[in-house]
Amino acid sequence: xNYVLIILGxxxxxxxxxTTVFIVGDRLVFSPLVRTALGFVPVTVLTAIIVPMAVxxxxxxxxxxxxxxxxxxxxxxxxxxxxxxxxxxxxxxxxAVFFLWQGVVLK
Length: 107
Known about the structure:
Helix content is 76%, strand content 0%. The protein is mainly α.
């Protein structure tokens, strides 16, 4: 029962925050500095999610070896992204390298 109350409480808080932003959103004016900083939020959140998964895929410490297919795929994706700036190609190459590395190189 406690889990249900916790989930309902989190849903209510999320709903209140989103509703408040929609209702008051037109009246809020952010400074250029805040708008610039908010532009970096998606990149930082995505980085904070992906880097720990690539560096420590089993959660037991950093695995900085060639035998870590997540790390190799992520490095390939970073390289493609830096060279091409094409998100779909970056994702495709990162996944292809990960699966090939896991299925061919490590077998």
